[in-house]
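Encode chain A's predicted structure.
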Amino acid sequence: MLKAALRHQYSELRRTLSHEDIETASIAISNHLLRLPIWFFNYYHLFLQIPDKKEINTQHILSVLSGRDKNIVVPKLGKGLHFHNYLLTDGTRLVKNRWGIPEP
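Encoded structure for chain A:
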């Protein structure tokens, strides 16, 4: 199956999820992270949620990482559709881009 077809298929599946389904899955995913042997790293890259696309709520993962005093890196789309990565700090202001993706 091609990437575009898979993307469409899973977008349709996400569209059927309720807010409660998304929150339950988001919490389960962030709790599962706590059991993984990944906590010796200092930096973690995380994509931020697009609520309109019914993606998992990555705020739960952000809370877990922050609670463990980890550095969190988030992407920002640059010219030519290239990503640039930024360290997320307490002072980082997030703004939605033209696709509704929160970026620094």
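The mean pLDDT is 93.
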